[in-house]
Design goal:
The protein is an alpha+beta fold. It contains seven helices and ten strands. It binds a DNA duplex through helix 5.
Length: about 280
Amino acid sequence: MPELPEVEVLVRHLRRTLPGKIVRSVQVNRAKSLRPTSGRQFRLRLTGARFTAISRRGKYMIFELRSRSGGETVRLLGHLGMTGRMFLALKKARIPKHAAVVFDLGRTNFVFEDTRYFGRLSLDLSAVEKLGPEPLEDDFTPEAFAKELKRSRQAIKVKLLDQSVVAGVGNIYASEALFRARISPKKAANQLKQQRIKALRGAIREVLTEAIEFGSTVPVNFDGAKSDGLFYFGRAPGAPDYYEERLRVYDRAGKPCPECGTPIRRIVQAARSTFFCPTCQKV
DNA sequence: CACCATGTTCCTTG
DNA sequence: CCAAGGAACATGGT
C-alpha cells in the first residue's frame, strides 16, 4: 500500500476508529516485524493500553497509547514496507495468513498484515529522527531542498527516494513528480537549476496532494481484502473522470505519453524501475 | 524456470 | 568521515 499518500489516508481512517479502544491482548505471530523490540517487551508494554492518537511522519505511522496505569504515554512506530496493511476486523473474520501482529480490542481485532514482512511495528521510534522535511509542510522550502540536492551527484530520481532529503516520496510518486516537472530522472541532483528545483518541489507537493485526495474518495475496504489494487491504479465508482489515468508514467512503459504521445520508457536506477517520457523530460 | 513488485538497512568499496 | 552501489530481507504474481 505504501507511500506518503497511502499512509496518510490510512492514518485518517484509523483516527476515526482506533482512539479509545483498549488492547486486551496482543498476538505476535512474527517477532521479526517488531525489530528491535522483543515480543515479550511489546506485549508487556501494550497490553491494557488505550489508543489515544495517530499521526504520520513520512511513510511512518505513529500510534500513541496511554498505559494501563494511566501515567505514561506509549508510542508505537509503524511502517508498511512494501505490502503492509493495517485494519480493524470483526472477531469472527478470518485472520490473514501473513498477519504479523493482532491486537485484541474486545469487539474487534486490529490487524497488521504484511505478506513480504518488510514492514515494522515497533517501540523504537529512532527511525523518524533521520527523516528529512515533510513535503507538504512549510519547512520543505525550495532553499532547503536545493541545499540537499547540491550535495549529491546521484541521479535525481534516486535522490528523491532518499528519505533524509524529503520524507515520504517513493518509487511511484518519484517518477510521477519528475514527469510533471519535466525533469529527466537521470539528471544529476547537483546539476539542477534553482528554477527546476522549485518546479520539482511544486510537482512533488501536487502529486502527493492529489493522491491523498484521490485516496480519500476511494472506499477502502478495512475488512482487509484487497484494499490497494483500487487505490493505486483504479478509480472509485463515481469518482471524477480526471482520476481515471491518475498515474501518467508509472508502470506505463510503451504506452503513449499523455502530453506528446512518445512511448513511455522504463529504465532501471538503483535496482528500481523508473518510468519517464524521453521527449518531455529532457532537462 | 525467469523476472517483476509501493521499502529500508547493512555491508563494501572508493 | 562521506557518497554510492549492491545485496539482503521475503512472498507472491505473471
